[in-house]
User: Which sequence fits this backbone?
């Protein structure tokens, strides 16, 4: 045992020398290959030359997500993301001037319907039915101008691959990959939907999004558990709110609200577009500037004032469910700018990264009470103070309580005894390796460059952060563990299987 | 309920106010020049066939200081003893965690992770695999360890028990997620529940697997035709010598046994699985597909693109965009490399829309026959497939994986080129001919997983005959079986 550890430490020292060189080299090589340009409207373009194949990938990173949804409109940022696939005044329409008038009528009809629907006193069912009828008619009138999915059709016909987008709490990201000779076509499409989006087919898309919620949250045991867990952990900050939106709110979002969100947040200063692949800044930048100049300028939207108050009592949520048990717990921690950000990363790595991790060895390998145990940090977002989360799947016959006890035991060790030199070195080595491995993929690299440019104002931080990784000490880990992992800062949630559903055959179940 | 009723009526009466439309306005994107694509020849790996039949692929890539390797071993879950279903899962989990005579799996974890290197094992339907990756400077040592694990594994009783406990967890949880149930049970409707492609591990079958079984499986499969792939920052001559030293001395590889599987169409009709804790249905419409050697594959690919590929497909346009009935809808006629795939179309509507969404989806399948595909649709579909074809080989790693796959299934090395050339020639007449040949709506099976109490109107409104309820209760092992998870319990 001792021999093995010493041997490992020696190899490690050798590896670290190689790493340090490799990383510095990479930053230098990337300095040469990356061009950054901030346009007059505040939008940042990043071009990274990687001409291995005649393709490029892009990532459009909007510094706004569902955390920015106004009160009563949860799910709005995500709803807008869906709208961004519906085309513009120039694509997806047979006749924009006429469609515009028709869409205004849809909005009026929806407002009238919603006003009646939300009446607490004196709602008239007959009037409501008439208003709904008028709303449907207005939608049908507007639809005749639509060329459905023309925006995505043009992209796909031109070879767009991996075409998609996601809305997180902190950000909204659009991306795909394309052959390099379609760069200008892409610039036209992408800048168009950032600058010139219209509320086309909004209300049908809203039912699509409600169905997305049914799939991801309502009909999925883990989805239900995590929504309740986060809602319980937060009392004030929007991180506690359902990202996809509470059913009553997401089903009532209007196109007017979505367009207002667009006006406020889709301004140049809130947007970074990173392109990686067979691009040439000298040739391509003037063309890209011409298109992306169309995005409105405007001030960076003001940040939110809400700060989650300090938690002072442990909270628990027990969900009786038809499915098998799952356990989750979380502790409030700082945001990504917190000086201890990388200490949290180190703790996460040492506790739960792979078969060498403490939680795996304790709960999966030795005690054999869990099939899987993970930690995630920060969750559900990083821009504002998030949670340090632990997540465990008990083996058959074991309970959420056993998961909690076993996790707490490992946490206690972290508070009272230093981690080993080997564990800390392993964290640092793996972090460097993961960074380097991530550079091989155009799409992954585009996402990272856009994200770091947004979060730190400089993509170089992707490499420079390794200095902070290197500075993490054993004492830091003990200090942070003692500060954060305390019961009054904890929220626990779990699924416990209802007694009557333990695989009883269905009534009327035929062979 | 009332709002829904109104919506249902509304759908039938809201015709747009008549207006005159003069086609589409200008299409500015068509004015944007599309220059010729930069010349590109995918970088092919060097292929070396050893005298014993083992094939090596070397793919140099000096961009990053890593070396990755893999050994693909023929034989997978479809080849295991049905009485021990789950064996390959257990084998692939405990192969790596057990380790070798010289170094057990835990010690290997410590050593590798300290270098941010990996050696892993995996199991699949038709193969198992050993993979490794490391920084260039560590690659000799990691390669030696990987070869030790390949040729001298020492399966451990303890690690097998661990794998059994994890497998058991998967078994008892397999009915928790609606989508997982739907995918699994739909495949059973097509291939049959006892088919090598669908039979599922049970607590009783995994309990029967022993360390001797794992060793036996290993010894048997290692005699097959191994395919070794290396990519990354290496010197080719040195690497070739190293691989020859490791693999050249092995006995001649034994050919894979000829398969004698029978495949038939599923029984048409409708089946239902109750899931009381959901508010949407997973609807699967399935039939038997084909295999990739079928000369109709290019036309079928174009048909798939038109039916369910992407935002512009008929299913997406109708069910999601026009009707707003589902977030997720799509599918197509499946083909596998060496056995028939599944024709599978899926839609996930809210419970109350189950009948409407199923009808709309089946309507688009039948619509392939009643509304023949047009030249414009074929042009769109071919553009989408051909313009994105590049992404099948835009990295050296992807080229390597493709070559390994073709080698494994015995396809020619230029398969992608001939496939592309054939795709370019597909016409609307070709697509309509394969529609006629392969699309038989009345022979498809429909599976609904959902919450019966919320499915209104009921499934009987689909007029698909008697509803066959499928019981998915998880069999508990008899007293003699012994549940691995339970055996470990301390109480």
Assistant:
């Amino acid at each position: 045992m001792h021999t093995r550890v010493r041997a490992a430490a020696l190899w490690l020292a050798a590896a670290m020398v190689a790493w340090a060189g490799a990383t510095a080299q990479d930053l230098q090589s990337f300095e040469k290959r990356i061009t950054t340009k901030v346009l007059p409207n505040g939008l940042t373009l990043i071009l990274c030359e990687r001409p291995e194949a005649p393709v490029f990938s892009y990532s459009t990173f909007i510094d706004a997500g569902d955390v920015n949804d106004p009160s009563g409109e949860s799910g709005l940022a995500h709803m807008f993301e869906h709208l961004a696939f519906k085309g513009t005044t120039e694509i997806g329409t047979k006749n924009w001037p006429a469609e515009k008038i028709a869409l205004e009528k849809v909005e009026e009809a929806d407002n009238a319907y919603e006003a009646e629907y939300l009446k607490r006193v004196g709602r008239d069912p007959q009037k409501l039915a008439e208003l709904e009828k008028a709303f449907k008619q207005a939608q049908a009138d507007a639809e005749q101008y639509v060329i459905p999915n023309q925006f995505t059709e043009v992209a796909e016909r031109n070879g767009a691959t991996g075409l998609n987008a996601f809305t997180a709490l902190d950000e909204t990201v659009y991306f795909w990959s394309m052959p390099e000779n379609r760069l200008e076509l892409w610039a036209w499409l992408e800048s168009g939907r950032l600058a010139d989006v219209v509320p086309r087919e909004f209300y049908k898309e809203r039912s699509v999004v409600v169905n997305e919620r049914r799939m991801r949250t309502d009909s999925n045991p883990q989805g239900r558990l995590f929504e309740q867990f986060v809602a319980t952990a937060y009392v004030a900050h929007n991180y506690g709110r359902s990202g996809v939106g509470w059913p009553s709110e997401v089903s009532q979002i209007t196109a007017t609200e979505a367009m207002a969100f667009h006006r406020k947040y889709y301004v140049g200063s809130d947007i970074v577009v990173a392109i990686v692949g067979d691009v040439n800044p000298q040739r391509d930048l003037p063309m890209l500037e011409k298109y992306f100049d169309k995005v409105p300028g405007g001030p960076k939207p003001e940040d939110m004032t809400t700060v989650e108050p300090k938690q002072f009592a442990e909270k628990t949520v027990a969900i009786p469910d038809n499915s098998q048990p799952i356990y989750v717990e979380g502790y409030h921690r700082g945001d990504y700018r917190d000086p201890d950000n990388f200490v949290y990363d180190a703790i996460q790595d040492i506790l739960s990264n792979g078969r060498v991790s403490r939680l795996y060895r304790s709960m999966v390998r030795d005690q054999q009470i869990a099939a899987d145990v993970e930690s995630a940090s920060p969750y559900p977002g990083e821009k504002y103070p998030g949670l340090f989360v632990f997540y465990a799947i008990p083996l058959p016959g074991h309970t959420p309580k056993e998961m909690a006890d076993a996790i707490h035991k490992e946490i206690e060790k972290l508070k009272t005894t230093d981690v080993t030199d080997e564990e800390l070195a392993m964290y640092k080595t793996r972090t460097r390796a993961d960074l380097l491995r991530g550079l091989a993929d155009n799409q992954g690299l585009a996402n990272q460059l856009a994200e770091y440019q947004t979060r730190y104002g400089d993509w170089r931080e992707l490499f420079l952060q390794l200095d902070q990784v290197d500075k993490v000490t054993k004492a830091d880990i003990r200090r942070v563990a003692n500060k954060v992992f305390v019961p009054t800062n904890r929220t626990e949630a779990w699924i416990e299987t209802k007694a009557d559903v333990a695989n009883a055959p269905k009534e009327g179940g035929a062979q | 309920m009332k709002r829904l009723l109104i919506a249902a009526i509304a759908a039938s009466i809201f015709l747009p106010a008549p207006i005159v439309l003069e086609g589409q306005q200008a299409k500015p994107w068509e004015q944007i020049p599309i220059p010729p694509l930069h010349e590109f020849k995918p970088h092919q790996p060097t292929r070396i066939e050893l005298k014993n039949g083992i094939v090596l692929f070397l793919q140099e890539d000096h961009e990053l200081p890593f070396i990755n390797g893999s050994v693909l071993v023929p034989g997978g879950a479809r080849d295991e003893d049905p009485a021990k279903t789950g064996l390959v899962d257990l084998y692939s989990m405990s192969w790596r965690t057990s380790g070798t005579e010289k170094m057990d799996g835990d010690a290997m974890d410590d050593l590798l992770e300290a270098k941010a290197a990996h050696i892993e094992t995996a199991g699949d339907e038709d193969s198992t695999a050993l993979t490794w990756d490391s920084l260039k400077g560590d690659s000799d040592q990691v390669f030696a360890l990987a070869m030790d694990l390949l040729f001298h594994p020492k399966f451990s009783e303890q690690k097998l028990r661990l794998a059994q406990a994890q497998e058991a967890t998967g078994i008892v949880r397999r009915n928790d997620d609606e989508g997982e149930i739907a995918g699994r049970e739909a495949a059973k409707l097509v291939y049959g529940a006892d088919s090598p492609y669908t039979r599922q591990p049970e607590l009783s079958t995994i309990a029967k697997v022993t360390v001797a079984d794992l060793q036996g499986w290993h010894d048997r499969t290692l005699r097959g035709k191994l395919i070794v792939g290396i990519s990354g920052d290496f010197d080719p001559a040195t690497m070739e010598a190293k691989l020859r030293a490791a693999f050249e001395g092995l006995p001649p590889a034994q050919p894979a046994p000829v398969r004698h599987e029978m495949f038939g169409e599923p029984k048409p009709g409708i089946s239902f699985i109750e899931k009381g804790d959901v508010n949407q249905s997973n609807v699967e419409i399935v039939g038997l597909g084909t295999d990739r050697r079928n000369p109709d594959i290019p036309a079928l690919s174009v048909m798939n693109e038109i039916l369910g590929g992407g935002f512009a497909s008929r299913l997406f346009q109708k069910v999601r965009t026009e009707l707003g009935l589902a977030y997720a809808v799509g599918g197509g006629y499946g083909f596998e490399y060496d056995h028939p795939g599944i024709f599978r179309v899926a839609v996930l509507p809210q419970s109350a829309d189950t009948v409407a969404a199923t009808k709309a989806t089946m309507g688009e399948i039948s619509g392939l026959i009643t509304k023949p595909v047009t030249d414009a649709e074929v042009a769109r579909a071919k553009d989408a497939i051909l313009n994105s074809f590049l992404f099948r080989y835009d990295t050296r790693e992807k080229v390597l994986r493709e070559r390994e796959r073709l080698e494994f299934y015995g396809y020619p090395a230029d398969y992608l080129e001939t496939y592309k050339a054939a795709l370019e020639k597909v016409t609307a007449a070709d697509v309509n001919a394969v529609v006629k040949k392969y699309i038989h709506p009345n022979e498809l099976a429909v599976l609904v997983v959902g919450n019966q109490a919320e499915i209104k109107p009921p499934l009987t409104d689909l007029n698909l005959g008697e509803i066959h309820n499928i019981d998915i209760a998880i069999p508990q092992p008899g007293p003699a079986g012994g549940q691995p998870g339970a055996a470990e319990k301390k109480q």
User: Anything to note?
Assistant: Residues 280 and 350 of chain B are 4 Å apart (CA to CA). The radius of gyration of chain B is 26 Å. DSSP finds 17 helices and 13 strands in chain B.
